[in-house]
């Protein structure tokens, strides 16, 4: 008798736990409950691309985000590391939603500025240095399908460094970065993914049976 009761109870516990997780993630991010549930569909697609174990691995992450540029692999690794909050080499659903929330159109500018700074701080020193700034410029040009000679790129990097490095110590700190972004808000364009606002339309099948109203 106890065995049969447990068999009937287990299926009911799972949806409740899933719904509770959706509420928690919605309360901690820029997503609504329905958007969190829709994101599960996207997460399942990404996490099963190579290894179907319920986690997004680095290879799957690179395949999804940077499939057409070897230069951007450097940034794919950096973004993956930042999504991997637990530092265990994989991204679970909670980490995926919390990190992706920063790219939501409704996320605060402060969070976007901070994330962008950490993204370009490739060596994790707390500063953006000349080499890292050059990688940022190269990534931006690649994304725009623009090719320039190396000496021109170097000139752009030098000019940018002088403009941003107000303290003249050869590196860009968080305060200098904020001031620079305030003058050049277009730098944060890469930090916003407009489709996240319509994620329930992109992945509607997962939320057709939800009873939650946002």
Structure description:
The chain has about 210 residues and is mostly helical. It has ten helices and two strands; from the N terminus they run H-H-H-H-H-H-E-H-H-E-H-H. It has helices at about 1-30, 35-45, 60-65, 75-85, 95-100, 110-120, 130-145, 150-165, 175-185, 200; strands at about 130, 170. It has a two-stranded antiparallel sheet with strand order 1-2. It is elongated and about 55 Å long. Residues about 1-15 and about 205-214 have low confidence and may be disordered.
Indicate the topology.
Elements: H1 2-28, H2 33-47, H3 58-65, H4 73-83, H5 93-100, H6 109-120, E1 128-129, H7 130-143, H8 150-164, E2 171-172, H9 174-183, H10 199-202
Antiparallel strand pairs: 1-2
Individual helix count? 10
Major sheet description: 2 strands, antiparallel
Q: What does the average pLDDT come to?
A: 82
The fraction of residues in strands falls at: under 5%
Number of DSSP E strands:
2
The proportion of residues forming helix, as a percent range, comes to 55-70%
Estimated radius of gyration: 21 Å
Quaternary class: single chain
Order of strands in the sheet with the most strands?
1-2
Q: Which shape, going by the Cα principal axes? A: elongated
Secondary-structure element sequence?
HHHHHHEHHEHH
Q: State the distance separating the first and last CA atoms.
A: 40 Å
Structural class: mainly alpha
């Amino acid at each position: 008798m106890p065995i049969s009761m447990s068999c009937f109870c287990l299926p009911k516990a799972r949806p409740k736990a899933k719904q509770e997780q959706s509420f928690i993630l919605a309360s901690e991010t820029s997503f609504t409950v329905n958007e969190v549930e829709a994101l599960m569909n996207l997460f399942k697609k990404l996490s099963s691309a190579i290894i179907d174990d319920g986690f997004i691995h680095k290879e799957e992450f690179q395949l999804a985000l940077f499939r057409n540029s070897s230069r951007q692999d450097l940034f794919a690794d950096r973004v993956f590391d930042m999504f991997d909050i637990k530092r265990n080499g994989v991204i679970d659903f909670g980490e995926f939603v919390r990190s992706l929330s920063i790219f939501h159109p409704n996320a605060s500018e402060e969070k976007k500025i901070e994330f962008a700074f950490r993204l370009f701080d490739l060596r994790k020193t707390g500063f953006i240095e000349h080499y890292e700034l050059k990688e940022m410029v190269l990534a931006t040009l690649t994304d725009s399908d623009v090719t320039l000679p190396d000496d021109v790129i170097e000139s752009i990097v030098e000019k940018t460094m002088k403009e941003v490095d107000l303290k003249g110590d050869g590196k860009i700190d968080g305060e200098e970065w904020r001031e620079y972004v305030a003058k050049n808000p277009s730098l944060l364009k890469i930090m916003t993914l407009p489709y996240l606002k319509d994620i329930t339309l992109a992945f509607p099948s997962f939320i057709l049976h939800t009873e939650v109203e946002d």
